[in-house]
Design goal:
The chain has helices at about 40-45, 55-65, 165-180, 220-240, 285-295, 300-310, 315-320, 325-335, 340-360, 370-380, 385-400, 405-410, 420-430, 435-440, 450-460, 465-475, and strands at about 5-15, 70, 75, 80, 90-95, 100-110, 115-130, 130-135, 140-145, 150-155, 195-205, 215-220, 250-255, 260-265, 275, 280-285. By secondary structure, the protein is of the alpha+beta class. Helix 6 (about 300-310) packs antiparallel against helix 7 and helix 15 crosses helix 16. The N and C termini lie far apart (about 70 Å). It binds adenosine-5'-diphosphate, magnesium ion and zinc ion.
Protein backbone atom coordinates (compact mmCIF):
# COMPACT_ATOMS: atom_id res chain seq x y z
CA UNK A 1 0.00 0.00 0.00
CA UNK A 2 1.25 3.45 -0.92
CA UNK A 3 1.57 5.55 2.22
CA UNK A 4 1.31 8.88 0.38
CA UNK A 5 -2.45 8.62 0.23
CA UNK A 6 -5.18 8.35 2.77
CA UNK A 7 -8.00 5.94 1.95
CA UNK A 8 -11.59 7.11 2.45
CA UNK A 9 -14.52 4.71 2.44
CA UNK A 10 -18.26 5.22 2.86
CA UNK A 11 -20.68 2.31 2.69
CA UNK A 12 -24.25 1.93 1.49
CA UNK A 13 -25.86 -1.24 2.77
CA UNK A 14 -29.14 -2.68 1.58
CA UNK A 15 -30.79 -4.73 4.27
CA UNK A 16 -33.62 -6.93 3.05
CA UNK A 17 -36.26 -7.14 5.73
CA UNK A 18 -37.80 -10.40 6.92
CA UNK A 19 -41.41 -9.24 6.88
CA UNK A 20 -43.74 -11.86 5.48
CA UNK A 21 -45.41 -9.49 3.05
CA UNK A 22 -44.05 -6.79 0.75
CA UNK A 23 -43.68 -3.13 1.63
CA UNK A 24 -46.64 -1.71 -0.32
CA UNK A 25 -48.88 -4.74 -0.98
CA UNK A 26 -49.90 -8.00 0.66
CA UNK A 27 -47.87 -10.33 -1.60
CA UNK A 28 -45.56 -12.86 0.02
CA UNK A 29 -41.81 -12.23 0.20
CA UNK A 30 -40.89 -15.95 0.29
CA UNK A 31 -37.73 -16.77 -1.63
CA UNK A 32 -37.44 -19.25 -4.50
CA UNK A 33 -41.07 -19.45 -5.67
CA UNK A 34 -42.26 -19.76 -9.28
CA UNK A 35 -41.51 -16.57 -11.25
CA UNK A 36 -44.26 -13.94 -10.94
CA UNK A 37 -46.36 -16.16 -8.67
CA UNK A 38 -46.14 -13.58 -5.89
CA UNK A 39 -47.38 -10.48 -7.62
CA UNK A 40 -50.45 -8.25 -7.72
CA UNK A 41 -51.40 -5.01 -9.50
CA UNK A 42 -49.37 -2.96 -7.00
CA UNK A 43 -46.03 -4.75 -7.35
CA UNK A 44 -46.57 -5.33 -11.07
CA UNK A 45 -46.82 -1.57 -11.36
CA UNK A 46 -50.19 -1.59 -13.12
CA UNK A 47 -51.60 1.89 -13.70
CA UNK A 48 -53.94 3.07 -10.98
CA UNK A 49 -52.88 0.54 -8.34
CA UNK A 50 -52.25 2.23 -5.00
CA UNK A 51 -49.49 1.37 -2.51
CA UNK A 52 -50.36 0.78 1.15
CA UNK A 53 -47.47 0.96 3.61
CA UNK A 54 -46.69 -2.19 5.64
CA UNK A 55 -46.57 -1.17 9.32
CA UNK A 56 -44.08 -3.90 10.14
CA UNK A 57 -41.54 -2.35 7.78
CA UNK A 58 -41.73 0.92 9.69
CA UNK A 59 -41.33 -0.93 12.95
CA UNK A 60 -38.22 -2.72 11.66
CA UNK A 61 -36.79 0.59 10.47
CA UNK A 62 -37.35 2.07 13.93
CA UNK A 63 -35.67 -0.95 15.50
CA UNK A 64 -32.64 -0.65 13.23
CA UNK A 65 -32.53 3.08 13.88
CA UNK A 66 -32.58 2.72 17.65
CA UNK A 67 -29.96 -0.04 17.55
CA UNK A 68 -27.63 2.21 15.54
CA UNK A 69 -28.09 5.25 17.80
CA UNK A 70 -30.03 7.11 15.13
CA UNK A 71 -32.68 9.76 15.58
CA UNK A 72 -36.10 8.61 14.45
CA UNK A 73 -37.90 11.27 12.46
CA UNK A 74 -41.41 12.07 13.74
CA UNK A 75 -42.37 12.74 10.12
CA UNK A 76 -40.79 11.26 7.03
CA UNK A 77 -41.62 11.24 3.35
CA UNK A 78 -41.66 8.64 0.61
CA UNK A 79 -40.24 9.84 -2.69
CA UNK A 80 -40.16 8.55 -6.22
CA UNK A 81 -36.72 7.84 -7.63
CA UNK A 82 -37.21 7.88 -11.38
CA UNK A 83 -35.19 5.73 -13.73
CA UNK A 84 -35.83 3.20 -16.43
CA UNK A 85 -34.84 -0.43 -16.20
CA UNK A 86 -36.86 -3.48 -17.27
CA UNK A 87 -36.97 -4.87 -13.72
CA UNK A 88 -38.77 -1.73 -12.52
CA UNK A 89 -42.25 -1.74 -14.06
CA UNK A 90 -43.45 1.58 -12.62
CA UNK A 91 -40.50 3.49 -14.03
CA UNK A 92 -39.69 4.69 -10.54
CA UNK A 93 -38.68 3.17 -7.24
CA UNK A 94 -40.46 4.26 -4.08
CA UNK A 95 -37.74 5.31 -1.67
CA UNK A 96 -37.07 8.12 0.76
CA UNK A 97 -34.98 11.14 -0.09
CA UNK A 98 -35.18 14.42 1.78
CA UNK A 99 -36.81 13.21 4.96
CA UNK A 100 -35.69 9.65 5.71
CA UNK A 101 -36.97 7.81 8.77
CA UNK A 102 -33.58 7.73 10.56
CA UNK A 103 -30.62 10.12 10.64
CA UNK A 104 -27.47 10.91 12.64
CA UNK A 105 -26.66 7.42 13.90
CA UNK A 106 -23.32 5.82 14.67
CA UNK A 107 -21.59 2.57 15.50
CA UNK A 108 -18.34 2.09 17.38
CA UNK A 109 -15.87 -0.29 15.80
CA UNK A 110 -12.57 -1.69 17.06
CA UNK A 111 -9.62 -0.78 14.87
CA UNK A 112 -6.11 -2.11 14.95
CA UNK A 113 -4.34 1.24 15.07
CA UNK A 114 -6.76 3.57 16.82
CA UNK A 115 -8.64 1.28 19.17
CA UNK A 116 -12.30 2.21 19.40
CA UNK A 117 -13.52 4.45 16.61
CA UNK A 118 -16.92 5.91 15.81
CA UNK A 119 -18.39 5.56 12.32
CA UNK A 120 -21.24 7.92 11.52
CA UNK A 121 -24.47 6.72 9.94
CA UNK A 122 -25.84 9.48 7.80
CA UNK A 123 -29.28 8.01 7.28
CA UNK A 124 -31.40 4.91 7.11
CA UNK A 125 -34.32 4.93 4.74
CA UNK A 126 -37.01 2.51 3.61
CA UNK A 127 -37.47 1.55 -0.01
CA UNK A 128 -38.77 -1.18 -2.30
CA UNK A 129 -36.57 -3.64 -4.16
CA UNK A 130 -36.79 -4.08 -7.94
CA UNK A 131 -37.57 -7.35 -9.75
CA UNK A 132 -35.04 -9.73 -11.22
CA UNK A 133 -34.02 -10.19 -14.85
CA UNK A 134 -33.41 -13.70 -16.12
CA UNK A 135 -31.23 -13.69 -19.20
CA UNK A 136 -32.25 -16.61 -21.37
CA UNK A 137 -29.90 -16.19 -24.31
CA UNK A 138 -28.35 -13.32 -26.18
CA UNK A 139 -31.69 -12.31 -27.71
CA UNK A 140 -34.18 -12.44 -24.89
CA UNK A 141 -34.55 -11.85 -21.19
CA UNK A 142 -37.43 -12.56 -18.85
CA UNK A 143 -38.43 -10.65 -15.78
CA UNK A 144 -39.50 -12.11 -12.44
CA UNK A 145 -41.30 -9.59 -10.26
CA UNK A 146 -41.56 -11.74 -7.14
CA UNK A 147 -38.83 -9.64 -5.57
CA UNK A 148 -40.34 -6.33 -6.72
CA UNK A 149 -41.64 -4.38 -3.75
CA UNK A 150 -39.68 -6.44 -1.21
CA UNK A 151 -38.87 -4.12 1.71
CA UNK A 152 -35.33 -2.84 2.10
CA UNK A 153 -33.57 -0.55 4.48
CA UNK A 154 -30.71 1.40 3.00
CA UNK A 155 -28.11 2.27 5.61
CA UNK A 156 -25.74 5.00 4.42
CA UNK A 157 -22.56 5.63 6.38
CA UNK A 158 -20.45 8.76 6.56
CA UNK A 159 -17.13 8.51 4.67
CA UNK A 160 -15.47 7.68 7.99
CA UNK A 161 -13.59 4.48 7.30
CA UNK A 162 -9.90 4.59 6.45
CA UNK A 163 -9.08 1.03 5.42
CA UNK A 164 -10.71 -2.14 4.12
CA UNK A 165 -10.36 -3.62 7.62
CA UNK A 166 -12.32 -0.77 9.16
CA UNK A 167 -14.99 -1.18 6.51
CA UNK A 168 -15.28 -4.88 7.31
CA UNK A 169 -15.41 -4.22 11.06
CA UNK A 170 -18.28 -1.78 10.51
CA UNK A 171 -20.14 -4.12 8.17
CA UNK A 172 -19.78 -7.11 10.45
CA UNK A 173 -21.18 -5.12 13.31
CA UNK A 174 -24.10 -3.81 11.29
CA UNK A 175 -24.75 -7.33 10.00
CA UNK A 176 -24.69 -8.72 13.53
CA UNK A 177 -27.12 -6.06 14.73
CA UNK A 178 -29.77 -6.51 12.04
CA UNK A 179 -29.62 -10.28 12.45
CA UNK A 180 -29.85 -9.94 16.25
CA UNK A 181 -32.85 -7.67 15.85
CA UNK A 182 -34.45 -10.30 13.66
CA UNK A 183 -35.17 -7.75 10.93
CA UNK A 184 -32.89 -9.46 8.35
CA UNK A 185 -31.78 -13.04 7.81
CA UNK A 186 -28.27 -11.80 6.99
CA UNK A 187 -27.78 -14.16 4.05
CA UNK A 188 -25.21 -12.37 1.88
CA UNK A 189 -25.13 -14.94 -0.89
CA UNK A 190 -28.86 -14.65 -1.44
CA UNK A 191 -28.52 -10.88 -1.35
CA UNK A 192 -30.32 -10.22 1.94
CA UNK A 193 -27.45 -7.99 3.06
CA UNK A 194 -25.78 -6.18 0.15
CA UNK A 195 -23.10 -3.58 0.26
CA UNK A 196 -21.88 -0.91 -2.15
CA UNK A 197 -18.50 0.48 -1.19
CA UNK A 198 -17.57 4.06 -2.09
CA UNK A 199 -13.82 4.39 -2.24
CA UNK A 200 -11.56 7.37 -2.78
CA UNK A 201 -8.04 8.40 -1.91
CA UNK A 202 -6.47 11.77 -1.12
CA UNK A 203 -2.98 12.97 -0.25
CA UNK A 204 -2.41 12.96 3.51
CA UNK A 205 -3.43 16.25 5.06
CA UNK A 206 -5.86 17.23 2.31
CA UNK A 207 -9.25 18.19 3.70
CA UNK A 208 -11.46 17.80 0.67
CA UNK A 209 -12.43 14.30 -0.36
CA UNK A 210 -11.06 12.73 -3.50
CA UNK A 211 -13.34 11.54 -6.30
CA UNK A 212 -15.00 8.27 -5.40
CA UNK A 213 -15.72 5.11 -7.28
CA UNK A 214 -18.73 3.12 -6.18
CA UNK A 215 -18.09 -0.63 -6.09
CA UNK A 216 -20.97 -3.05 -6.58
CA UNK A 217 -21.51 -6.78 -6.73
CA UNK A 218 -19.88 -7.50 -3.39
CA UNK A 219 -21.58 -10.52 -1.87
CA UNK A 220 -19.19 -11.63 0.85
CA UNK A 221 -16.98 -9.93 3.43
CA UNK A 222 -13.94 -11.43 1.73
CA UNK A 223 -14.87 -9.96 -1.66
CA UNK A 224 -15.59 -6.57 -0.12
CA UNK A 225 -12.12 -6.47 1.38
CA UNK A 226 -10.47 -7.65 -1.82
CA UNK A 227 -12.43 -5.21 -3.97
CA UNK A 228 -11.58 -2.22 -1.77
CA UNK A 229 -7.90 -3.13 -1.64
CA UNK A 230 -7.74 -3.60 -5.40
CA UNK A 231 -9.59 -0.33 -6.01
CA UNK A 232 -7.25 1.66 -3.76
CA UNK A 233 -4.24 0.38 -5.67
CA UNK A 234 -5.93 1.14 -8.96
CA UNK A 235 -6.69 4.73 -7.96
CA UNK A 236 -3.15 5.25 -6.72
CA UNK A 237 -1.84 4.02 -10.06
CA UNK A 238 -4.17 6.35 -11.97
CA UNK A 239 -3.01 9.37 -9.97
CA UNK A 240 0.68 8.43 -9.99
CA UNK A 241 0.44 8.12 -13.77
CA UNK A 242 -0.77 11.70 -13.88
CA UNK A 243 -4.41 10.81 -14.48
CA UNK A 244 -7.62 11.58 -12.61
CA UNK A 245 -10.04 9.23 -10.91
CA UNK A 246 -13.48 9.53 -12.50
CA UNK A 247 -16.67 9.25 -10.53
CA UNK A 248 -18.22 6.02 -11.68
CA UNK A 249 -19.81 2.74 -10.71
CA UNK A 250 -17.49 -0.24 -10.92
CA UNK A 251 -18.35 -3.92 -10.72
CA UNK A 252 -16.23 -6.33 -8.76
CA UNK A 253 -15.17 -9.34 -10.78
CA UNK A 254 -14.51 -11.99 -8.14
CA UNK A 255 -13.02 -14.48 -10.59
CA UNK A 256 -10.23 -12.10 -11.50
CA UNK A 257 -10.10 -10.10 -8.28
CA UNK A 258 -10.46 -6.77 -10.08
CA UNK A 259 -13.03 -3.97 -10.44
CA UNK A 260 -14.34 -2.94 -13.87
CA UNK A 261 -16.01 0.24 -14.96
CA UNK A 262 -19.74 -0.30 -15.40
CA UNK A 263 -21.20 3.14 -15.96
CA UNK A 264 -20.73 6.75 -15.12
CA UNK A 265 -22.21 7.63 -11.76
CA UNK A 266 -25.60 9.31 -11.72
CA UNK A 267 -26.13 12.38 -9.60
CA UNK A 268 -29.17 12.66 -7.37
CA UNK A 269 -30.76 15.24 -9.69
CA UNK A 270 -30.72 12.70 -12.53
CA UNK A 271 -33.38 10.78 -10.63
CA UNK A 272 -35.86 13.65 -10.41
CA UNK A 273 -36.84 12.72 -6.89
CA UNK A 274 -40.21 14.05 -5.77
CA UNK A 275 -42.62 13.17 -2.94
CA UNK A 276 -44.84 10.25 -3.87
CA UNK A 277 -48.38 11.66 -4.07
CA UNK A 278 -49.83 8.19 -3.43
CA UNK A 279 -48.38 7.93 0.06
CA UNK A 280 -49.10 10.23 2.99
CA UNK A 281 -46.24 11.59 5.03
CA UNK A 282 -45.34 8.96 7.63
CA UNK A 283 -45.94 10.01 11.24
CA UNK A 284 -44.13 8.13 13.98
CA UNK A 285 -45.20 9.00 17.52
CA UNK A 286 -42.93 9.03 20.56
CA UNK A 287 -45.16 6.42 22.13
CA UNK A 288 -44.53 4.08 19.25
CA UNK A 289 -40.77 4.67 19.41
CA UNK A 290 -40.73 4.07 23.18
CA UNK A 291 -42.76 0.94 22.77
CA UNK A 292 -40.34 -0.44 20.14
CA UNK A 293 -37.39 0.54 22.32
CA UNK A 294 -38.81 -1.38 25.25
CA UNK A 295 -38.88 -4.54 23.14
CA UNK A 296 -35.33 -4.27 21.76
CA UNK A 297 -33.17 -7.26 22.62
CA UNK A 298 -29.87 -6.74 24.40
CA UNK A 299 -27.42 -6.08 21.55
CA UNK A 300 -24.14 -7.90 20.98
CA UNK A 301 -21.94 -4.99 22.10
CA UNK A 302 -23.83 -4.78 25.39
CA UNK A 303 -23.64 -8.53 25.88
CA UNK A 304 -19.92 -8.48 25.17
CA UNK A 305 -19.43 -6.04 28.00
CA UNK A 306 -21.84 -7.70 30.42
CA UNK A 307 -20.30 -11.14 29.97
CA UNK A 308 -16.96 -9.70 31.02
CA UNK A 309 -18.31 -7.64 33.91
CA UNK A 310 -21.07 -9.84 35.29
CA UNK A 311 -19.63 -13.27 34.49
CA UNK A 312 -15.93 -12.40 34.65
CA UNK A 313 -15.30 -14.00 31.26
CA UNK A 314 -12.23 -13.16 29.18
CA UNK A 315 -12.93 -10.83 26.26
CA UNK A 316 -12.33 -13.66 23.83
CA UNK A 317 -15.01 -15.88 25.38
CA UNK A 318 -17.43 -12.97 25.67
CA UNK A 319 -16.88 -12.19 21.98
CA UNK A 320 -17.48 -15.72 20.77
CA UNK A 321 -20.56 -16.24 22.93
CA UNK A 322 -22.22 -12.92 22.14
CA UNK A 323 -21.58 -12.96 18.38
CA UNK A 324 -24.68 -15.00 17.61
CA UNK A 325 -27.93 -14.36 19.41
CA UNK A 326 -28.97 -18.01 19.59
CA UNK A 327 -25.56 -19.02 20.97
CA UNK A 328 -25.78 -16.23 23.55
CA UNK A 329 -29.23 -17.38 24.63
CA UNK A 330 -28.03 -20.95 24.88
CA UNK A 331 -25.05 -19.92 26.98
CA UNK A 332 -27.18 -17.76 29.28
CA UNK A 333 -29.59 -20.66 29.77
CA UNK A 334 -26.70 -22.93 30.81
CA UNK A 335 -25.34 -20.33 33.24
CA UNK A 336 -28.76 -19.90 34.81
CA UNK A 337 -28.73 -23.63 35.63
CA UNK A 338 -25.08 -23.99 36.58
CA UNK A 339 -23.63 -20.81 37.97
CA UNK A 340 -19.98 -21.18 37.05
CA UNK A 341 -19.77 -19.02 33.91
CA UNK A 342 -16.21 -19.90 32.90
CA UNK A 343 -16.92 -23.64 33.05
CA UNK A 344 -20.11 -23.09 31.04
CA UNK A 345 -18.20 -20.98 28.54
CA UNK A 346 -15.51 -23.65 28.10
CA UNK A 347 -18.11 -26.31 27.38
CA UNK A 348 -20.24 -24.18 25.08
CA UNK A 349 -17.27 -22.88 23.08
CA UNK A 350 -15.45 -26.22 23.11
CA UNK A 351 -17.77 -29.23 23.06
CA UNK A 352 -20.98 -27.65 21.86
CA UNK A 353 -19.72 -25.29 19.13
CA UNK A 354 -17.08 -27.84 18.13
CA UNK A 355 -19.60 -30.64 17.66
CA UNK A 356 -22.05 -28.37 15.87
CA UNK A 357 -19.38 -27.24 13.46
CA UNK A 358 -18.23 -30.77 12.81
CA UNK A 359 -21.79 -31.90 12.08
CA UNK A 360 -22.69 -28.70 10.27
CA UNK A 361 -25.62 -27.89 12.55
CA UNK A 362 -26.85 -24.66 14.09
CA UNK A 363 -27.33 -24.25 17.80
CA UNK A 364 -31.10 -24.50 17.42
CA UNK A 365 -30.55 -28.03 16.17
CA UNK A 366 -28.25 -29.01 19.02
CA UNK A 367 -29.46 -32.28 20.58
CA UNK A 368 -27.79 -31.39 23.88
CA UNK A 369 -30.09 -28.77 25.42
CA UNK A 370 -28.87 -26.29 28.05
CA UNK A 371 -30.58 -28.49 30.68
CA UNK A 372 -28.72 -31.58 29.51
CA UNK A 373 -25.40 -29.76 29.41
CA UNK A 374 -25.90 -28.29 32.88
CA UNK A 375 -26.67 -31.83 34.06
CA UNK A 376 -23.18 -32.96 33.01
CA UNK A 377 -21.49 -29.97 34.61
CA UNK A 378 -23.22 -30.64 37.93
CA UNK A 379 -21.95 -34.20 37.97
CA UNK A 380 -18.39 -33.07 37.33
CA UNK A 381 -18.77 -30.49 40.05
CA UNK A 382 -19.97 -32.96 42.67
CA UNK A 383 -17.25 -35.46 41.69
CA UNK A 384 -19.65 -38.07 40.38
CA UNK A 385 -17.66 -38.17 37.15
CA UNK A 386 -14.26 -36.90 36.07
CA UNK A 387 -13.83 -34.30 33.34
CA UNK A 388 -12.64 -37.03 31.05
CA UNK A 389 -15.62 -39.32 31.57
CA UNK A 390 -17.79 -36.24 31.12
CA UNK A 391 -16.72 -36.15 27.47
CA UNK A 392 -17.99 -39.70 27.03
CA UNK A 393 -21.24 -38.78 28.77
CA UNK A 394 -21.55 -35.78 26.47
CA UNK A 395 -21.21 -37.95 23.38
CA UNK A 396 -23.83 -40.38 24.68
CA UNK A 397 -26.24 -37.54 25.42
CA UNK A 398 -25.69 -36.21 21.93
CA UNK A 399 -26.70 -39.54 20.43
CA UNK A 400 -29.43 -40.71 22.81
CA UNK A 401 -30.90 -37.51 24.23
CA UNK A 402 -30.87 -39.15 27.69
CA UNK A 403 -29.73 -37.09 30.64
CA UNK A 404 -26.37 -37.35 32.39
CA UNK A 405 -27.65 -39.26 35.41
CA UNK A 406 -29.32 -41.89 33.25
CA UNK A 407 -26.17 -42.43 31.23
CA UNK A 408 -23.86 -42.50 34.23
CA UNK A 409 -26.15 -45.13 35.79
CA UNK A 410 -26.68 -47.30 32.75
CA UNK A 411 -23.03 -47.32 31.71
CA UNK A 412 -21.66 -47.56 35.24
CA UNK A 413 -19.55 -44.47 34.76
CA UNK A 414 -19.70 -43.23 38.31
CA UNK A 415 -16.30 -42.15 39.45
CA UNK A 416 -14.60 -44.44 41.94
CA UNK A 417 -14.01 -42.40 45.07
CA UNK A 418 -13.86 -45.36 47.37
CA UNK A 419 -10.27 -45.19 48.60
CA UNK A 420 -10.10 -48.94 49.21
CA UNK A 421 -10.90 -49.70 45.58
CA UNK A 422 -8.40 -47.17 44.29
CA UNK A 423 -5.80 -48.37 46.74
CA UNK A 424 -5.98 -51.88 45.37
CA UNK A 425 -5.56 -50.63 41.80
CA UNK A 426 -2.61 -48.54 42.94
CA UNK A 427 -1.05 -51.61 44.52
CA UNK A 428 -1.52 -53.56 41.26
CA UNK A 429 0.06 -50.78 39.21
CA UNK A 430 3.06 -50.57 41.52
CA UNK A 431 3.52 -54.32 41.45
CA UNK A 432 3.30 -54.44 37.65
CA UNK A 433 5.91 -51.73 37.00
CA UNK A 434 8.97 -52.42 39.19
CA UNK A 435 11.42 -50.62 36.84
CA UNK A 436 9.46 -47.38 36.84
CA UNK A 437 8.98 -47.63 40.59
CA UNK A 438 12.71 -47.88 41.06
CA UNK A 439 13.35 -44.92 38.76
CA UNK A 440 10.72 -42.85 40.54
CA UNK A 441 12.19 -43.62 43.90
CA UNK A 442 15.59 -42.77 42.44
CA UNK A 443 14.34 -39.22 41.84
CA UNK A 444 12.57 -39.28 38.48
CA UNK A 445 9.39 -37.67 39.79
CA UNK A 446 8.08 -36.95 36.34
CA UNK A 447 6.96 -40.57 36.27
CA UNK A 448 4.00 -39.66 38.48
CA UNK A 449 2.07 -38.86 35.30
CA UNK A 450 2.75 -42.34 34.01
CA UNK A 451 1.47 -43.97 37.21
CA UNK A 452 -1.69 -41.87 37.29
CA UNK A 453 -2.26 -42.78 33.65
CA UNK A 454 -1.93 -46.49 34.48
CA UNK A 455 -4.42 -46.20 37.35
CA UNK A 456 -6.89 -44.34 35.17
CA UNK A 457 -6.54 -46.93 32.46
CA UNK A 458 -6.98 -49.84 34.85
CA UNK A 459 -10.10 -48.19 36.26
CA UNK A 460 -11.43 -47.40 32.75
CA UNK A 461 -11.17 -43.73 33.54
CA UNK A 462 -13.37 -43.95 36.60
CA UNK A 463 -10.83 -43.48 39.38
CA UNK A 464 -10.91 -40.02 40.89
CA UNK A 465 -7.64 -38.62 39.52
CA UNK A 466 -6.93 -36.51 42.60
CA UNK A 467 -7.28 -39.50 44.88
CA UNK A 468 -5.22 -41.70 42.58
CA UNK A 469 -2.48 -39.10 42.70
CA UNK A 470 -2.54 -38.88 46.47
CA UNK A 471 -2.54 -42.62 47.05
CA UNK A 472 0.25 -43.18 44.52
CA UNK A 473 2.43 -40.57 46.24
CA UNK A 474 1.83 -42.21 49.56
CA UNK A 475 2.55 -45.76 48.37
CA UNK A 476 5.59 -44.79 46.30
CA UNK A 477 7.27 -43.00 49.14
CA UNK A 478 6.77 -45.92 51.50
P1 LIG B 1 -25.29 7.83 -3.99
O1 LIG B 1 -26.66 7.23 -3.96
O2 LIG B 1 -25.06 8.83 -5.00
O3 LIG B 1 -24.23 6.81 -3.97
P2 LIG B 1 -25.42 8.35 -1.20
O4 LIG B 1 -25.45 9.66 -0.50
O5 LIG B 1 -26.56 7.43 -1.05
O6 LIG B 1 -25.16 8.70 -2.69
O7 LIG B 1 -24.15 7.57 -0.74
C1 LIG B 1 -22.92 8.08 -0.82
C2 LIG B 1 -21.97 7.22 -0.05
O8 LIG B 1 -20.66 7.49 -0.47
C3 LIG B 1 -21.99 7.52 1.43
O9 LIG B 1 -21.78 6.33 2.15
C4 LIG B 1 -20.81 8.46 1.61
O10 LIG B 1 -20.24 8.36 2.88
C5 LIG B 1 -19.85 7.94 0.59
N1 LIG B 1 -18.97 8.96 0.03
C6 LIG B 1 -19.30 10.17 -0.43
N2 LIG B 1 -18.21 10.81 -0.91
C7 LIG B 1 -17.18 9.97 -0.77
C8 LIG B 1 -15.80 10.03 -1.10
N3 LIG B 1 -15.27 11.10 -1.69
N4 LIG B 1 -15.04 8.96 -0.83
C9 LIG B 1 -15.55 7.87 -0.26
N5 LIG B 1 -16.83 7.75 0.08
C10 LIG B 1 -17.65 8.77 -0.18
MG1 LIG C 1 -24.57 4.92 -4.02
ZN1 LIG D 1 -48.00 -7.34 -4.75
Amino acid sequence: MNSRYEVVIGLEVHVQLTTRSKIFCGCSTAFGQLPNSQTCPVCLGLPGALPVLNRQVVEYAIKAGLATNSQIAPRSIFARKNYFYPDLPKGYQISQFELPICEHGWLDIETRDLGRKRVGITRIHMEEDAGKLLHNDSYSSAVDLNRACTPLLEVVSEPDMRSADEAIAYLKQLHQIVVYLGVCDGNMEEGSFRCDANVSIRPWGQETLGTRAELKNLNSFRFIKQAIEYEVERQIDVIEDGGEVVQETRLYDADNGITRSMRGKEEAHDYRYFPDPDLLPLQVSDTWIDEVRSRLPELPAAKLQRYQEEFGLPEYDAGVLSADRAVAEYFEAVVSLFEQPKTCSNWVMGEILGALKEKNLTIDQCPVTPELLAGILKRIDDNTISGKIAKTVFEEIWITGKNADQIIDEKGLKQVTDSGAIESIVADVIAANPDQVAEYRGGKEKLMGFFVGQVMQASKGKANPGMANQLLKKKLSE
